[in-house]
Amino acid sequence: MSERVKLYQKISAVMKDVEYLSKDDKVEFSNTKYKAISEEKVTSTVRESLIRNKLVILPVEQQHKREGNLSTVDTKYKIVDIETGEFEIIVSSGTGADTQDKGVGKAMTYAYKYLLLRTFAIPTGEDPDKVSSAELDEKQRKAEEEDAKKFTLVKAKWETLAGTLDGFEDWHGKQIKAGVTNAQMDQLLAKKLMEKKKESA
């Protein structure tokens, strides 16, 4: 039996191990409500079978682009039989919408999730096509508007506390890089304003 055939037999074994994954997440938008399956559930379930069958999946090449708030990632992976070193190249793509710098990460997560679902032909009952692009665009637009409002509040609170906007852009940029949202910054500065009022009372 060739090493390539052994690799395909192991892939088939994973398909037999993971015959179905039920949805464990809820997505709600306007009048649309549907269940989805999380990346965590897909990865953790398939991971157990990969370990058992002595397979590893490695990203070996990636390209990404960003248009507006939408990041797209195209990734090549190797699925490797660690007993023989035989491998097959598999590909996947993903998109992620984000107003800050997390779009690529979201796209990578989406790409890996669907790589596992499609490579091992795992049915979930999930049908993303049932959610129209217009609905998703509207959801994204509202999220961006809300984020912009929070940014305005953060800026105003900073100016109230410091009496000037000097240093604001540098501070705000560092907070964003650290993964702090405008909503969280607004809460933080609101707390500081409350403390300042108590001190001056």
From TrEMBL:
InterPro entries (UniProt xref): ERF_bacteria_virus
Residue ranges, annotated region (Disordered): 128-148
A Pfam family this chain is assigned to: ERF
Protein name per the record: Single-stranded DNA-binding protein
The organism of origin for this protein: Paenibacillus sambharensis
Lineage: Bacteria, Bacillati, Bacillota, Bacilli, Bacillales
